[in-house]
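Researcher: Batch entry, complex prediction.
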Amino acid sequence: MSYDIEIGRSKRARRTYSLDDIALVPARRTRDPRDVSTDWQIDAFTFPTPIVGAPMDSVMSPASAIELGRLGGLGVLNLEGLWTRYEDPQPYLDEISLLPGDDMPRVTSRMQEIYAEPIKAELITARLAEIREAGVVVAGSLTPQRTQEFSRAVVNAGVDLFVIRGTTVSAEHVSQNQEPLDLKEFIYELDVPVIVGGAAGYTPALHLMRTGAAGVLVGFGGGATSTTRRALGIHAAMASAISDVAAARRDYLDESGGRYVHVIADGGLGVSGDMVKAMAMGADAVMIGAPLARATDAPGRGYHWGPEAHHHEYPRGARTQMSQVGTLETVLNGPSNHVDGTSNLVGALRRAMATTGYSTLKEFQRSEVVITQRS
Amino acid sequence: MSYDIEIGRSKRARRTYSLDDIALVPARRTRDPRDVSTDWQIDAFTFPTPIVGAPMDSVMSPASAIELGRLGGLGVLNLEGLWTRYEDPQPYLDEISLLPGDDMPRVTSRMQEIYAEPIKAELITARLAEIREAGVVVAGSLTPQRTQEFSRAVVNAGVDLFVIRGTTVSAEHVSQNQEPLDLKEFIYELDVPVIVGGAAGYTPALHLMRTGAAGVLVGFGGGATSTTRRALGIHAAMASAISDVAAARRDYLDESGGRYVHVIADGGLGVSGDMVKAMAMGADAVMIGAPLARATDAPGRGYHWGPEAHHHEYPRGARTQMSQVGTLETVLNGPSNHVDGTSNLVGALRRAMATTGYSTLKEFQRSEVVITQRS
Amino acid sequence: MSYDIEIGRSKRARRTYSLDDIALVPARRTRDPRDVSTDWQIDAFTFPTPIVGAPMDSVMSPASAIELGRLGGLGVLNLEGLWTRYEDPQPYLDEISLLPGDDMPRVTSRMQEIYAEPIKAELITARLAEIREAGVVVAGSLTPQRTQEFSRAVVNAGVDLFVIRGTTVSAEHVSQNQEPLDLKEFIYELDVPVIVGGAAGYTPALHLMRTGAAGVLVGFGGGATSTTRRALGIHAAMASAISDVAAARRDYLDESGGRYVHVIADGGLGVSGDMVKAMAMGADAVMIGAPLARATDAPGRGYHWGPEAHHHEYPRGARTQMSQVGTLETVLNGPSNHVDGTSNLVGALRRAMATTGYSTLKEFQRSEVVITQRS
Amino acid sequence: MSYDIEIGRSKRARRTYSLDDIALVPARRTRDPRDVSTDWQIDAFTFPTPIVGAPMDSVMSPASAIELGRLGGLGVLNLEGLWTRYEDPQPYLDEISLLPGDDMPRVTSRMQEIYAEPIKAELITARLAEIREAGVVVAGSLTPQRTQEFSRAVVNAGVDLFVIRGTTVSAEHVSQNQEPLDLKEFIYELDVPVIVGGAAGYTPALHLMRTGAAGVLVGFGGGATSTTRRALGIHAAMASAISDVAAARRDYLDESGGRYVHVIADGGLGVSGDMVKAMAMGADAVMIGAPLARATDAPGRGYHWGPEAHHHEYPRGARTQMSQVGTLETVLNGPSNHVDGTSNLVGALRRAMATTGYSTLKEFQRSEVVITQRS
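Model: Structure tokens for the complex:
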């Protein structure tokens, strides 16, 4: 990695690239889209659709996690969201979708109040049980701060994949106030595979891989619902971040003598082309929120928000209105009568793979990309 | 070619340039525009106007193909469009132009329905015969998927130039479902010259040249009517793509001991300046749609759409409204009272050649260009 | 420093970067925000909040300077503003906030009239005394042109820190018309520490450091209230400027055998992310105007203007309307229900330091930054 | 000059920079603006204001050329404009300013009609005589196409400086239809100094210098009234163009044993900052149109257009509405109550020179500039 640009006499930097800065290019060979496989295999599970539903209340309810599972993907329920705070969260989901859009501070304040309700361990158990009964892969997420408190409830409820997700999660969190989560020990003792992140660089990701995680989420508040760059000055351009973490996967594979840790791009994937590019940069799967929030049957009812939007101390996101394009099934598999990359996500991936001549996702990671001006 | 930019630790890329990123610069010598020749010669045909009308229903009907031929260019009829599906396509052209613009999904759906009507071989014959009777060069296009089914009808109808055009056409298409078109064999057996594409890189174009094609279309869904970049993540910046394919022409010329394959820029050429730049990057001719759709006598009646717009599975383009600037003759040859590059396309090319001191298109390909910020 | 870019055959240049062009990236380690110190120590003074209120009438009155001091920062009163021209400036502050926004030339003219009132030495004494009585650190600013005339009044009034601030202040001002201020002699004779600027490059800053200044302001009319770039063609991209001046600090530290001159970023810091980035580029503290003008208790009452806006000869800024986000305390320390980097500035800095794993501002200057497309 | 960027496999290019891409930076020394000289000396003439009024009917009438001369600059009358076509052009100027702005083709057509009126040699004589009687330096311009026809009338009328100005003027114009103007012979035989252009590169400018021209206009249709880039694909980024032509001046100075040919930036200088940057890139003076069209006493009465706007064959510009900022004197010398670089042009230049420490324009050409993102 070359820090080849001099910003000033005392600081050098590298240039990073977002998905908007790159594009795939057609290759010598093309392929029939029907011959292409989009299978994603992690641990004991195989998903025909390499799409993970982001643990956000506007996107994943128990019902929509089940539906996503039936459609071949993986739904992750936010275990610190409304479904584990309220016996019946529907009135609050309704209220959030009805808060007046022209008074953002009021929206933020009200969301902070709604999310101040404590999390109940028994609701965690109940929600995950509901998903399990539907016969799909069960996954739930906690933040690192809450993992120690609630992980037992999660594991006892019978989760298949456990997700630890925060804005930034490092393998080495330092605090003088509370004993931080020892990820390595935690994962070692847990009997389910863990996906952890966000991480947005080679070294942080490598350290997370060494904790024993089955997958690493690549991202840092770059999604549609976050204003992290403006507020904190921190930003991880997604194309560069995925490539860096994919390099960590490769190096860790060697270092560990063969442990393949999955790289899951998380954040900023707004349309099907973004998802395609994330895969081409080295992602094994994508965790998406906004594209799923456009489903007519999404819990957000045309609105989308992330956990940052109602952070009690430092809210950074916003509740965003989304255009609706069809059912979750239409969003994933079409048929599409929208031409802007918002529906038939899997069809788009399949077609992009066919056009560039690849038949598996692992091969597709080798795609040639170019840097090109944003249109 | 240097993949000199590190996007991340596991991926390198080259930077590519669109026509908007470049400009010609005046040279030491200027020339009288009247001394400039814009002749384009391919196979046995010489066209005073190096403009090929794109096979799109909004641009090329039999009548407008004839008119373009009379004006010195080459009209290519889309043999999978309305004119070969319907005995009288006019009511459908009218209907498309009247579909309400504020409901894009409905426009897309209705176009999908209209284009679901089967193609009739006898209409292919009739339409091409109509063009032939007018005494201009006859050209029609099919997609690779339909070429085997209808090519006999086309050749029997007496076509002068045959165009095989898809979003991406490779010389090596792989399918387990149907026997793909063997381009090399097909072209070898055909007794008319074939223009084939789109191709958007050195290697894909070189392979197409080796099939025996007389010309290669350079492009990949970059036109005004396509949202390919957003939906599929695939994009070929036009200036780089033309230069790459021109390099393939040069290398194939050597490899083949003298076969000159024409490079025809296809897509994203919205105004006369784009056409000029495409020539300067190495194109022998340009295939254009949008500029011709601005003619008052264009079939699209102020609207423009490509085949992607009504793709039955994965529509990606949109029916776009175009400002109208005058007859096809005015668009090509002026007199111009529009100052924005939408009329007098040939006059603009002539003037640009004169200003940079070149007298033939082949010489003009050597023009110096610079990279400059978009304005 | 490499002047590696050829603009043309007779001029080379370096590329410079603004804060919008860069971003911080998360690192291997994260830290508890509560363990982070934002202390800034200059001369005998320690400020828990490394924020200096810009000497602008819309931002700093005696009352708001006192309030900022109480909140841990440093307020600097403009000693050439309304508070030292008028016994009671409130009617004029009111009038400026009520001037009709659709007639900018009239606003400029009226402000020129209001600021034509002479400065009174006794008002300088009175205003500084008022601040001193409140028990906070006392600071006032003059332009280089007025420093000789009024500096005695300032020092006699008992100022703790003296600020000499102009658009550009050099250590070597040449004039045939009036004896310029000899900064080195002036600072040597004064018995209070002096902060001086703006400077926007390595060499100008190094020369200012050699005058004995305790701090250097980095900037050149880059703030929200200035149109210097458009009118004068002069611009100092802030990220590069801070890094250059930080390099001067490092080199002067060696050259002087250990004198540490503080680098204070001044101008163009509109949101908390900008402040974070300025620190990461090497600033010891930030002087801000616009973010403080968004306080409901700011003297500008929702408007913001700098001294350039009413320059008698060459006005360059404009009175700008600002959205209001809460009290000065809310702007600095939250609680925030605004998600756009306009409130809880100190919280944002603390969180950014924690996320990148640093516990002091001095360490935080080593942060890794990347160059990334503007969003 | 390094053609270091590969656009594609068959074309390399250099990157060029417009004035918007660069900025001056403050230096170690500052200077009192009153000590700065903006004198420009060409041939026997010294102009306190290095501003040449562009020969455009919206900017230069005999009266405004005289006024500009009185204010220290040089007015150039367009000898192919309305003042030499009509005994009383005022009705036509009035009409142009009243043509409805929402029907651009009609505006263009009507202007083409108005400018179809033949040029009268006797009106050339009369207009130049009127300027001469006012006691200011007399200058008029012709296009290369008309120079042979009318140059005698011009010289006999007693012009001090003769301007030959076209979009692109080369020293080597080739035509099979008419004997082109032999610039070298023409200038040699003429007894007045000639300024000629536009030229936009090192080689074209060097060749123009070798014809014996006293000055070269740098530009190619980059002004506010031209759409050359869009229509012809030709563009000369102004910062690079000026630097290249300044290099030709330097090299020709050596080659000729001491003949200093003036470099006059012409086009795209919309605000005072642009003028400042043009000087810093190496221009000796600037020819401006748009900034003067903003004068309340400009002939265009709030509108601005160039000769391209009514070209009989290939119109490329547009009649553009301009905000008005004050009299010509205010535009040049202030007092300014506009803060956007549209008034007090000379004051801005003076202040920029003072801030960067230079006292003459020739020294100012050495200014350090940086490349910076457009704001």
